[in-house]
Amino acid sequence: MSEAYTQIGGGGLDLLIVGDHASAHVPDDIDLGIDPALLRQHIAIDIGVAEVSRLLAGQLGATAILGGVSRLVIDLNREEDAAGLLPVMSDGHAIPGNRDADLAARMMRFHHPYHHRVATLLEGMTSPFILSVHSFTPRLASDPGQQRPWDIGVLYNRDDRAARIAIPLLEAAGLMVGDQLPYAGTLLNATMNRHAEANGIPYLGVEMRQDLVGDAEGQARFAAILGPVVLECRSRLA
């Protein structure tokens, strides 16, 4: 057990499901100085990711690793020298408890163990494939005029092999798919850059719209859609 991550499953399939922002947990000894209600919003957690990842792990016989703390404690999907590792603002909300926080201590406690575990799990696979699962808010408080109508986004940096396979399959399943939307994986792809692209491991990165995976029915729907798509990508690339 580790406070930095939760590991699920461990079936025989060489598929690792990664959820960087799957938790809203804030350890008791960390005070972010925010209204606790914010921990239920997108600035703190990728809503629906933990549940969809658990369903997929069980459905596919795969392993899932989920970040163990809120992205407001430390952002696991950021490079080690990125400014956004320890956010002091998020979508218009101040995070005052992070202003004087010890970044090095948070890195040692959460960021390093999480990424070490991801690397270890991949090293134990003969022909690994990664599914990176995130969710996005349909409307930013800081930019309410921005339209985000997509049901799911597919993100990638230089390696778009799985994206090209997945996008038509997701569209055929009835989803409105954003290719590099609502933002581009060339900008926000740190975990996959580190563990997949840097090592030549094929991966699929998805961003589900959080209001579509906020309840059990939506979570089951997306898991049922994503499962066959991920298997098709893996069989063609791994």
From TrEMBL:
Q: Which Pfam families match?
A: FGase
What are the protein's GO molecular function terms? Answer: hydrolase activity
Q: What is this protein called?
A: N-formylglutamate amidohydrolase
Q: Which of UniProt's keywords are assigned here? A: Hydrolase
Recorded superkingdom = Bacteria
